[in-house]
Specification:
- By secondary structure, the protein is an alpha/beta fold.
- Helix content is 48%, strand content 18%.
- The strands form four sheets. Strands 5-6-7-3-8-9 form a six-stranded mixed beta sheet, with helices on both faces.
- The chain starts with a strand and ends with a helix.
- It is globular.
- Strand 17 and strand 18 form a beta hairpin.
- About 1% of the residues have low confidence.
Length: 651
């Protein structure tokens, strides 16, 4: 358990936190909530020990291991992807090196009867057992599983980390943290650079993890799936809710209404008291009562209403200019970068007025297609825009097109027309530009701030086709809701490249999945697509199993169908083949029973590990590894027997 005691943080006279205390329990799934600038990232840094508070303390058990993923970090580019991920197992590799050295020494010793030899042997045995217990035989498989889960392919493992973008290098850091198996994960915006499949894999990993998780995220669906507790930071105080993000919003609204009612009642009482004091201040007969009321006011603990932004800012895109019935059409579109083919012979159509999502694993061609629609990339085949189509394009590099000499306000004022000009400050505030921020020059803004400003500018331009590439990456939840509502009411067509399921839900009516160099169309919303995708995967597995069964049946039939074409076997030869066949069929049946038993045992162990003590967890973990090894061995035995049987039947 981590204990936060009396935490206070001050910056140059400004107090970010004041006397905050709470505990993080061993299996908590905790989300930090609050406005940008409330102190969420600072809280994670203090828990991680990266930053020290002005006063107060953070108590951690001795030997407690923390896995901290900040939003920004420096990357080492001297290793391959796999080698960098292996850094999570430095302690384990050091132990393996010790064991190897001891084995080498053991092979050269001859003092078999000495006490020193027996002590050495005992030490070697203990170290070997310890290595096996913490996964010494299996860590490379763990690395492969984790890297694949986060979107890397096997061919990426040997590439240098410097060849990857910042987002992919962040995935490598996340992989290292996950592989280190700490007692607590502290994750600051872990989904920012992940695609939908990787996010779902991470959700499953964190939900089943045996330690604690504290996460900051603007991905509402991710928070709802992972967390069961929410701590909101407001005006230097915290409110602790035993609920995920969506339930927390409901409870927070109830708290706000209770605060408002209590505040109004107190204000009414204060007003009545002040009127009484003013009315009878100079009457001698009432002096005792007046002094009593004055003391009463001085003792009142004034109720403060927390800072809730309840304004319902409504932004609408300008009316979309009229365009043809078909917005974009692609025919036999092929794109390759050198020898690497990203898309091959793709056909697609985008009707006017549709809201469409481009989804799929990173590197499958989503952004490439968006750029080809914008005519930014050469390609084979045809991509034709409909009559009168005017595109508004948003991508991460759009921030580079802003005028660095303009202020934030001027950047928007130049494109705003009509009544919207009276709401520029409100619109900028909705996208996290407030106070003095709007007078800053674009040249001094961070990359995220420039990206948000480019999004605001796009909102005010009259277009009829929006092409948005990851528009939510630097937006908080409220800003995303405002943008989502604006796109829903947009009269034109929208193509959205995004991994944010909550943002896409209720917004898009068609999903194009990029997979295996193709674009596959799915009618319906994002959650319908995800459900279909799972069913489709199951159908794929079932169809493959059916093919295998058919092949076995076919091979079983082959002897009777081809027996006349083969030389006639002697009785002894037929008897020997029959014995081999019976033995192999028995071996396969026994192996299948063992596989089923081991799978059930592994599932039972995993369920036990979710709610057991640390001592018991170590014991279960060791058995879990042994059972997995036995399962792999039994699967290999079953496969060899199947191959031997098929070979026997085909001869």
């Amino acid at each position: 358990m981590i204990a936060i005691n009396g935490l206070t943080v001050e910056f140059g006279g400004f107090r970010l936190f004041e006397n905050i205390s709470y505990n993080i329990n061993p299996k908590d799934r905790l989300g930090l909530a609050g406005k940008n600038g409330a102190g969420k990232s600072t809280m994670l840094k203090i828990i991680a020990g990266v930053q020290q508070p002005s006063s107060g303390s953070v108590g951690r058990p001795k030997g407690y291991r923390i896995g901290y993923l900040p939003q920004h970090m420096n990357h080492d580019n001297s290793r391959t992807v796999f080698e960098e991920a292996e850094m999570a197992f430095e302690e384990l590799k050091s132990m393996q090196a010790d064991i190897d050295a001891m084995n080498e020494e053991l092979s050269q010793r001859t003092d078999y009867d000495s006490e020193d030899y027996m002590n050495f042997l005992t030490e070697l045995t203990d170290k070997t057992e310890r290595l096996s217990m913490i996964g010494g035989d299996n860590y490379k498989a763990e690395i492969e599983t984790t890297l694949k889960g986060l979107g890397f392919e096997r061919k990426d493992f040997t590439r240098n980390t410097g060849e990857f973008s910042g987002g992919w290098r962040m995935r490598i850091e996340l992989a290292k943290i996950l592989l280190s198996r700490p007692d607590i994960f502290l994750l600051d915006e872990p989904t920012n650079h992940l695609d939908i499949e990787s996010i779902q894999w991470l959700e499953d990993f964190l939900k089943d993890y045996n330690g604690a998780v504290v996460v900051i995220s603007h991905d509402r669906a991710f928070l709802d799936h992972v967390t069961n507790r929410t701590i909101e930071i407001v005006l230097g105080k915290i409110y602790d809710y035993k609920a995920n993000y969506s339930k927390y919003l409901v409870l927070r609204q109830e708290r706000f209404e209770q605060q408002m009612n209590a505040f109004k009642n107190q204000q009414k009482m204060i007003e009545d008291t002040e009127k009484f004091i003013e009315r009878f201040r100079y009457k001698a007969t009432k002096s005792v009562q007046v002094q009593s009321r004055i003391k009463q006011l001085e003792k009142i603990d004034r109720i403060e209403v927390d800072e809730f932004d309840t304004s319902a800012l409504h932004i609408k895109f300008p009316p979309a200019p009229h365009s043809g019935v078909l917005t974009v059409k692609g025919k036999s579109v092929t794109k390759a970068f050198g020898d690497h083919v990203v898309l091959e012979n793709v056909d697609f159509e985008v009707p006017r007025g549709e809201k469409i999502a481009f989804v799929g694993r990173n590197g499958e061609g989503k952004t490439t297609m968006a750029r080809m629609i914008m005519n930014e990339l050469d390609h084979k085949g045809e991509i034709v825009l409909g009559h009168g189509v005017k595109i508004g394009y948003f991508a991460q590099n759009q921030a580079d097109l802003l005028s660095l000499d303009d202020t934030v306000f001027d950047t928007i004022d130049k494109v705003a027309v009509g009544d919207i000009r009276t709401k520029i400050r409100d619109i900028l505030g909705a996208f996290m530009f407030s106070g003095e921020d709007i007078d800053k020059k674009v040249s001094v803004l961070s990359g995220g701030e420039k990206t948000r400003l480019a999004m605001v500018r796009l909102l005010l331009e009259p277009v009829n086709l929006l092409v948005l590439d990851e528009p939510t990456n630097h937006l908080d939840i409220r800003s995303k809701e405002i943008l989502k509502q604006a796109i829903k009411e947009f009269e034109g067509t929208a193509i959205i490249v995004s991994h944010d399921r909550e943002f896409l839900d209720g917004l898009v009516t068609r999903v194009y999945e990029f997979r295996n160099k193709k674009m596959k169309e799915h009618l319906g919303g994002i959650y319908e697509f995800l459900q279909d995708r799972k069913l489709e995967s199951l159908r794929d597995i079932e169809s493959k199993n059916a093919e295998k069964v058919a092949e076995v049946k076919k091979s079983n039939e082959k002897p009777s169908q081809t027996v006349e074409q083969k030389p006639k076997l002697s009785y002894e030869e037929q008897k020997e083949i029959s014995k081999k066949r019976n033995r192999l069929e028995k071996l396969i049946k026994e192996s299948e029973a063992k596989i089923e038993k081991l799978e059930l045992e592994i599932s039972d162990i995993e369920n036990q590990m979710m709610s057991c003590s640390n001592d018991k967890a170590m014991e279960l973990s060791k058995r879990h590894q042994e059972a997995n090894w036995e399962l792999g061995s039994e699967m290999e035995k079953w496969e060899n027997a199947q191959q031997d049987l098929e070979a026997l039947l085909n001869n």
